[in-house]
Amino acid sequence: MARRNRGPAAAAANRESILSAARRLFAERGYDVPLSAIAKGAGVGQGVLYRHFPTRLDLAFAVFEDHFQQYAMTAALPGPDAFCLLWRGLVDNLIAETAFIDMVSDARKTRVEYDGARRLIDLLADPLRRAVEAGLVPTDVTVEEVMLSIRMAYGIVRTAEAETTPDDLRTTILDAFPRLRCNDA
Fold first, then answer.
1. What is the model's pTM?
2. Domains defined along the chain, listed by start
């Protein structure tokens, strides 16, 4: 039986299928995964993909906006542990989806209006202040140090041997930045 084209009625479902396939394939194959593979994984034609997301960056922004929403919810948690949860979440996402950092790097080169780094700095500031005040991290830890640590952690992930497990990477990264360990809270 031939598939029936549902046209505009399928737009929302197609968009969600594309985002789901992109999320999975960016994680499995990286930011440079062919867009044709994403369209195929979503069960749509490339034209449908491009109607929803004209560029790779548009697609990546949509996929990774979920991360920022999660980071914002974590940052808004009351108490001093929000920073610790946020740092660990950033590390976990970095390990699982290096495509996120690849996308940020690409965006910084091609889209001067991209504000991802600023948004992340803004999300980190208050939780870090609360963690410092509670004595969970040293008083001289700054948001700039956290951002540098994220870039360095990306380097660790990118240069890891293929057989390195995500758990090993997580341990390596958390051990590499003891000032951000939140006193093992």
1. 0.78
2. 1-54 (1.10.10.60), 56-184 (1.10.357)
